[in-house]
Tfp pilus assembly protein PilF
Amino acid sequence: MTEFGEINADLGQALQLMEACQWDQAIVLLRAMVDARPFDCRAISKLGFALWKKGERKEGAATIEKALQLDPDDGEVIKDCMHVFLEAGRVDDARQILESYVQRNPWDWEIKESIEAMLHQTPEKSPPRQRNDNGTATADVLVGLGEEEFAKGNTDRARVCFEMALEKNPTNAKAYNNMGVLAWHQGDLKEALSCFEKALDLASHDGEILLNATKVLEAAGEYEMAAQLLEIYLTAHPTQTEAWKDYRELVRKSAQSWSPENLDVNVAQIYLDMGRRLAEVEDIQGAAEAFARAARIDPNNQEPYHRLGLLHMQLGQLQEALEMLEHANSLADENGEVAEALEQVRQQIDASSAFGVKSPGT
C-alpha cells in the first residue's frame, strides 16, 4: 500500500517537474499517482494541467473537469481550472467558477486574491474561445464520470453528474437514459418512464435506451408498448436471441393483459382476418396474438381455437395444440378440418410417447 507521505513526496516532485516545464516526466509520475489513488483530486487536477500544457488539450480539460467534480471546493483544483479556462479564452467561464467558489467558501481570501490577480493579468484581446461545443463535450465528460460513479455504487454522485450534464446540454439523450436507470433502481417507475420518454424523443433508435425503456415498461405492466419498442430494437439487431425471447414473452403477457370488454363480436372477425394474413407471411407470433384476441372477444367461436391449434402444431408444441383443438372440437358440431387436425396431433403425441420423446410443450 502506498503511504500518505510517499504520495506527498511524489506530488512535490511532480510540481518541481512542472515548474521546469518537464511535462512528459511529470505526466508519467502523476499518472502513477492517480492509478494508486483514483480519488486524489489534486493529483488528477495536476495531471490535467500537465496534459494541457503539453498540448493534449482534450484529455487535459476532461481530466481537470473530473477533478473539479470530485471536489469543487479544493482551491488548487480551482486554480488549475482557471489557468486552463483563461488560456482557452474562456474568461466568462473562469469568472463564473471563481464566483461560485467564493460563494461557497467566502473565508478563502487567499485563493480569491490569487485568482483575481490571474484574471487581471489576462490580456483584453483573448484568443478565440473554445466553448466545448456549447457544452456538448463537457456534458459527455460529465455523463462518463456519472457512469463511473454509478458503477462504484455512488448513486448520489452519479445523479449530480447527470444533472449537470443536462444543464450543459439539455439534448443529451444518454444523460436522460442514465437518470431513468437511477430512478428505476430506486423504485420510481413514473420518473424512470418520464426520463426514458425524453431520451427516446432525442434518440429514438438508440439500442441501450430502447432496452432500458422496454424493461421499465414491462415492470409497469405496459407490455404492448414494451413489445413495440423491442420490435424497433430487433429491426436493427435481428440476431439477438435473448431479445427475441423477451419479445415473445412480452407478446404473451400483452395478450393476457389485454381486455376485450365492451368489444362487439364483429371485432373478433377483424382479428381473425388479421391472424390469417399474418400466418400467410409466417409471422407466427403476430398471428397467434391476433387469434388469441379473437378467442377472448368471441369465446364460443370455434375458428380461433382451431387456428391456434394449427400454429402450435407448426411449432411442434403438441400438448398445447391438443388442448386448443379439443376445445375447438367441443364448441361446434362435426367439423372435418378440426377433427382431422385433432386426429393428427393425437397420432404425433402417441408416436412421440412410443419413442420416449416429449414435445416442447410438455
